Fold this protein.
Amino acid sequence: MNSKKNPITRRDFVKISAVAAISTQLYPAFAGEGKNNSKSRIIRIHDPNATKPWDYSANTPWNHTVEPGETGYPEKIKERYFDYINEDVVAKMLDRGLRELTDTESAPDAWRKLLPNLQTSDRIAIKMNMNNASFDESITTNRMDQTMPLVNVILENLVNDLGLSAERITILDASRWFHPEKMKGRCRFKNVRWVDHTDKERWDKNESVTFSKDAPKPGGDFRMPKAYTHSEHIINLCLMKTHSCGITGAMKNHFGSIPTPKNLHEGLGDKSYIADVCNTPSIRNKVRLNIADALFANWHNNVWAPRPWETFLEESPNSLIMGTDPVALDSVMLDHIIEEIKAQGENASKRLNESVTHHDFLQYAMDEFGLGIHEHRPYNRIDYRTFEA
């Protein structure tokens, strides 16, 4: 037997060392060796032109569902915030963010690093947050949900730059609904697959959430969607909104991927539910990138229209925030929300001030499962970087 090893050239060594260094910056050491020494990189890209000025005051009250009311006639039609997004600027922001996150020179190179062993036959699931969907074609509303500009830019990258087939890409929010005009009608890639509550065969009986500490309410169904279990890669798109658990961002976004998320909402910020969902194999092992669409954002609640902010350069944050570590991303966004609530003073209720303290799930996700890094400012293990597009 020949035990002689193939020699490694200096060029090979440099390549291997560079990849290892980048991987250490991108990915936390999950639940294993080196966990305490790892760092997670989170990138925020800002561009003041990402959104056109939206008149917040003219669109008050922000807690009003617009369009047809009980009479069947329009009651309050105002400008839609999602019509005030500049897709071309979002494209520049995503390009810069991907390059800064991965230390690469182009967005295609970044995607190849983020999507390991990518093949043209791979299936990709893009999880969106449509929690405030109207379930009514006649109603679009200003309730804050995911919008299409960022999705179109990602699809442009995947299909036109990487040569992937649109038919192999699924856009989903399995327990919610996609508006035919607001969402599907604005998608520039007509051959992508859409999965929402109208797909009766969307759940996979072979994979469900395992609860580690806190038991959910009886009668729940916690299966994963087939779009997750059958895919090779998942891209998780979320929003920057507050919640009774402090932040509904990258991690809680996956509540839309189980049949009965309502069974997990009681006291969820202090319980293990969110971490348990994110520790499910298809989520833990397949989510390659988390991107928070923070072009508009809501520090006040998780249901209604975007709110104007005091702590960013403009009333709208005009930001994309991204990383491979969902715990770190949520920790950063939670700190932004906490900072904003303090800046709002009397505009922020006692309930709101209390809600941002109920985020034990982040610590649990780190300590129990090694899903990522949780800490507050000033950051030691979260490498948070901000850039202009």
Remarks:
- The CA atoms of residues 112 and 157 lie 11 Å apart.
- Residues 1-25, 27-35 have pLDDT under 50 and may be disordered.
- The chain has one domain: 10-388.
